[in-house]
Specification:
By secondary structure, the chain is α/β, with parallel strands linked by helices. The protein contains twelve helices and nine strands.
Amino acid sequence: MPRTRVGSRMTIPNRKPSLTEVDYRAPILTGVLGGMGPLATAHFLKLIVAADPAKVEQERIPVVVWSDPSIPDRTEALIAEGESPVETMAHGLSRLTAAGAGLIAIPCNTAHAFLPDLQRRCAVPITNMIDMTVRKCANVLPSARVGLLSTQGTRISGLYDDAAEALGLTIHHVDARTQEELVDAAIVAVKTDDNSVDPLGLLREAVRVGFPERVDLVVVGCTEISVALDHGDLTAEVVDSSQVLASEVVRLARNPRQSGYRESSRTSASGDDPSSTQSAPSSSRDDLPRQPRQRLSTDWHGQNRRRG
């Protein structure tokens, strides 16, 4: 598979669907449940535009966004008995479905630990960015040793470990000190827009010293880390979960019959309730949520920084 070198980093290109593969007449209205955090949501919308093969704005996929920064911290809920984000996220899902969304994306890796509960509350299919990202890794390097940069919540919940194991891949994590002092610090700097910290520099150092064993590629498993990469590269081969999700959202929205998602109207001008055409996803879909193994460790409890 051809790859593109950007600076000193080998990036894995996400192929845009060709114009002959898409149907511009009836793309699904895509809902984005965001605010985790707001900058990462804005960055994700930019990636959707970049992944869309449309040449003029009138042909791009329609997107409706519910960005709610008040959603409780996902990592705190997972490792420090913090408030569950499920109720607030479920409210956002209801607003998106009421707006007519026929497909929903959640650009937050850690939030996927709650995906089974969320999907049970939502008749519209929710994409699974974890499974999508791991499948991308398997397609690029089928026997890859995959390094992961993520929040503590994503790490401890085993989201990527479970998905990788199903495809015969192994996930490697940075050591605990690197996670705390470099990766977490970089994520917090992006979330708080702290200009006194260089998140890209911290992440480069994490890749350089943090993995106990050699890795073949690095998964960007946090949407804030994806934001940081807008300013440079990691000097490593990267699969960015935000880019993967954006590309898959465009593909699914443009190919509703192939993807198994139910089409949804762009508008409610006909007077019909858009939600009446929606259906629950088939349980056989590869990208539907799976219940992750719980890997909560007391080593991480009591950490009160907001890292979700």
